[in-house]
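// run 5 | inverse folding | seed 20
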């Protein structure tokens, strides 16, 4: 008597996740799973951006001079050759303006050509960042050391000032 009851409970509990997923509306699933799945409207927008193949430009209303650094967080190249990148945590396909004009292809070193607001062109690899004040390209691990050196220099100047 107990064995058939346990068998039926096991079959019900194994089907429960499937029943929950079937009963939820698709938009609730997209919200819960974040970037993995999109609503039909979001997919249509992404497909339109992929087909256009346009480079995203920095709009004039954005104050690009307020930025001190630009970080290339990552690059994703799809099988069809389209390129997605993340600059300062912002995806290139988003509505948020990017702080640089991006190239369409990576070079042989997997670097992404990027035109900065001042007109300078750099080729950072994922994880590298650009110091706009100096116009230099740095590895990700170099950032804390540079900030610490600058802080020490500032402290020294204030302590030696008359």
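// decoded
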């Amino acid at each position: 008597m107990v064995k058939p009851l346990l068998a039926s409970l096991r079959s019900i509990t194994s089907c429960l996740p499937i029943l929950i997923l079937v009963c939820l509306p698709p938009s609730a699933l997209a919200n819960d799973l974040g970037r993995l799945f999109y609503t039909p409207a979001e997919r249509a927008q992404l497909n339109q951006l992929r087909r256009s193949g346009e480079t995203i430009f920095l709009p004039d209303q954005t104050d690009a001079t307020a930025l001190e650094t630009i970080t290339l967080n990552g690059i994703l190249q799809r099988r069809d050759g389209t390129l997605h990148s993340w600059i300062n945590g912002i995806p290139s396909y988003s509505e948020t303006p990017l702080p640089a004009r991006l190239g369409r292809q990576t070079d042989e070193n997997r670097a992404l050509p990027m035109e900065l607001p001042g007109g300078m062109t750099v080729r950072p690899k994922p994880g590298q960042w650009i110091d706009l004040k100096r116009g230099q390209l740095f590895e990700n691990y170099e950032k804390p050391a540079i900030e610490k050196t600058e802080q020490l220099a500032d402290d020294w100047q204030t302590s030696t000032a008359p």
